[in-house]
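Lab manual, section 2.4: Encoding a predicted structure.

Procedure: take the sequence of the chain (344 residues), apply the prediction step described in section 2.3, and record the output as structure tokens. A sample record is shown.
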Amino acid sequence: MTPSPMSPARAKTLEAIRRRLRDASSVVLTTHVNPDGDGIGSMVALASRLLRHGAEATIVTPSRPPASLRFLLRDLPALVEEDPAAADPLNGADTIAILDTAEPKRLGSLPEHAERTGGVLIDHHPPVGSPLVTPAIRDPSACATGELVYDLLSLDDERLTRAEAEALYTAISTDTGSFRFSNTSPRAHAIASELLETGVDTGALFRELYGVYSRGRLALMRLALEGLEVDPRAPIAWIALDRRALSRAGARSEDMEGLVEFPRRLAGMEVGLLFRGLARNRTKVSLRSNGEVDVSGVAQLLGGGGHAKASGVLIELDLDEAVRVVLDALRPLVEAAVASKRDR
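Recorded output:
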């Protein structure tokens, strides 16, 4: 199955990005804090291609990648921003490649380097404001940033290596919820099919990504389910975990990944939420919609962003107050969605 051609506008922008990267001699690739499969997979595929073309390419992330994704980084120079060794590639880079986010506040200190050196930006989230660097593509019609990187690499008219295909398959499959979410397009399946032709072992990938839970993660899941709540006024469910939850469970920050799916999947719910107390007057909120409610508007209103069905925000409030503020903002939207369903 051959993927449908990319749009002329996408092709034009990606060609400008390709030319910029082709002329670079030393590239630092980065993504958002708490990197996910799309960010890591997209960086790995692009870094691999740059290295094969003779450029220096180093991955530097604002925070440590989760254990379930580190297998993708095994053969590449990859550092965390706080590592002293990261200073050399950052100071020596002539190009910064930013993938899977366009929000400077989610990039640690990397925006300072990007403003100094210039670079490229590849993202599939809805654009907000001016891009940090240009050339930039911010295309929410793509199912994942991995789709855009696939299109970028296809401009070289070179066969993908198995490692590059594995990274892109991880990017696309994780951001589409293993091809379950509504952003899964016919083109996503066609690209995945082509990636599989390189010999990607989906069974091995699944085991790396999802196959093993630590005891700490299971203990955290128990705490989360014990604290599951449902709003009495609207079909909204949520989990609120205070800043001591991780230590009580013996879990790591990355073990929070996916917990928001529990309230979202509760029968009859329109929206599922996960509140995580990070510190006094600091709460991280993940918002997930089952389709009728655009949660990105609420996230943007509170200083965050994301997609219509999956967004996030960091609120400068304590846990209980953050729950109240988010619920107050969401209820009118959810109630309107319920009323609209009744009227159909």
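Check your result against the sample. The mean pLDDT is 95.
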